[in-house]
User: Which sequence fits this backbone?
């Protein structure tokens, strides 16, 4: 992850060094063994093109694989099928069958873990950036750093490989990065003589103005449902307020703080004061996106793809949308924090097609696929060359903002992150739906987090 906050930087650097060391060891092991591994598995049927060297480095040209991936966008052309067609054109003897995964990352994970731990599941899957610790610890993903060389890992933007690493092995190939952004209605801000808000106070006051003039029904839409997305949104408010979830070695909760209560009280006020819809406690990305695209909200908090989706046919806000870094609380340095999300490509340890899996993973993280994701679907590419190329930057307005964002990662370095996150989103959702108060919810969440980390920690 591209940590920019001092607290987590040294950890990320440490991990990066460990990863580099691990990869060197893995690469020399492959060299020494004459590449006898075809991906560690039951490689039969994988049809590697020229023996095991090709298989180990992702150069196989034959095979047939299944790819499990949730929809990357919420409307418009499906990036998954665009990418598969281009891949099959480049590799006519590898066929890819798409298995459409659930949209909600939690349901996606639950379905997948049941399948893989039962010995089945897809060959390659698109999985969340928060999964490496849990999936690595429970053998739900193959350690890709054993199969793909250091030169491959060097192609990624700084920090992403570290984020996909658990105990010195890289489990996921970074496929696209997500960050939280503030989307706004350019036309309304301009009509009312308002500038893009850099503080939450300003956002609320702009929202009230536009709502009172009847220009929009809502001021702000975000993700507050009982799921992972609510954790992502809360991480931003929490970091803006100066709070943290875990102590520095991830052994104890650090959530029971006045900053955490301040963050949640503000989030609650958005709903209480009718800036955000009363139904915010049921909103995932899709509902927030649809409300904004319908023209019903002045502001939207969403990930990178939201720009392209807001401009897809059927949207009522084509040509009217701007994108900016998130706001923060008054008195804090701007901008506010953006949570880091994104998706990696993982290989099922039970896959019988590992040689072709590796070819597919390599291609999907290479120039052509990454350029498609960035220019057609406003995703942040993980491939450094694509990310910095000027024609890609010109075609993706979200990328222009990436150099200005301030990032906060979720504390997913512990295999028990699912429980940690559940504690957070349960608290947020309870407050937004009116069943508890910010201070009571934070206390309960903090206790649950302590239980979760004491059950395993790192
Ligand atoms: C996006 C992010 C992912 C996050 C999810 C939450 O898909 O990329 O990291 O967990 O949203 O809904």
Assistant:
């Amino acid at each position: 992850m591209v940590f920019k906050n001092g607290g987590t930087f040294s950890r990320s650097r440490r991990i990066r060094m460990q990863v580099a060391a691990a990869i060197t060891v893995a690469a020399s092991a492959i060299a020494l063994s004459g590449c006898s591994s075809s991906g560690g598995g039951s490689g039969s049927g994988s049809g590697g093109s020229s023996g095991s060297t090709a298989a180990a480095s992702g150069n196989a040209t034959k095979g047939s694989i299944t790819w499990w991936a949730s929809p990357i966008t919420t409307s418009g052309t499906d990036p998954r099928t665009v990418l598969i067609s281009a891949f099959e054109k480049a590799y006519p003897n590898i066929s890819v069958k798409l298995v459409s995964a659930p949209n909600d990352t939690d349901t996606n994970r639950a379905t997948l873990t049941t399948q893989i731990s039962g010995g089945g599941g897809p060959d390659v899957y698109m999985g969340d950036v928060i999964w490496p610790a849990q999936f690595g610890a429970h053998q739900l993903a193959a350690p890709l750093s054993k199969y793909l060389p250091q030169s491959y890992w060097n192609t990624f933007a700084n920090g992403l490989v570290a984020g996909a690493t658990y105990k010195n092995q890289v489990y996921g190939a970074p496929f696209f990065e997500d960050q939280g952004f503030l989307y706004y209605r350019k036309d309304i801000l301009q009509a009312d003589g308002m500038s893009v808000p850099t503080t939450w106070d300003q956002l609320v006051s702009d929202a009230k103005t536009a709502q009172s003039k009847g220009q929009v029904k809502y001021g702000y839409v975000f993700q507050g449902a009982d799921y992972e997305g609510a954790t992502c949104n809360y991480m931003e408010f929490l970091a803006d307020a100066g709070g943290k979830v875990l102590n520095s070695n991830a052994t104890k909760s650090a959530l029971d703080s006045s900053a955490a209560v301040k963050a949640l009280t503000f989030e609650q006020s958005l709903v209480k004061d009718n800036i955000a819809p009363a139904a915010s406690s049921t909103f995932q990305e899709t509902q927030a996106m649809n409300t904004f695209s319908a023209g019903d909200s002045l502001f939207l908090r969403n990930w990178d793809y939201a720009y392209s989706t807001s401009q897809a046919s059927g949207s009522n806000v084509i040509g009217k949308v701007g994108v900016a870094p998130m706001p923060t609380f008054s008195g804090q340095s701007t901008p506010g924090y953006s949570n880091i999300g994104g998706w990696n490509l993982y290989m099922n340890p039970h896959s019988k097609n590992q040689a072709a899996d590796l070819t597919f993973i390599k291609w999907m993280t290479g120039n052509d696929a990454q350029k498609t994701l960035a220019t057609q679907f406003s995703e942040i590419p993980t491939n450094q060359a694509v990310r910095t190329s000027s024609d890609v930057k010109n075609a993706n307005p979200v990328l222009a903002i990436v150099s200005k964002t301030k990032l906060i990662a979720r504390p997913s370095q512990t295999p028990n992150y699912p429980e940690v996150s559940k504690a957070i989103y349960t608290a947020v959702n309870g407050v937004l739906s009116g069943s508890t108060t910010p201070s009571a919810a934070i206390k309960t969440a903090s206790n649950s987090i302590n239980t979760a980390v004491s059950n395993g920690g790192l």
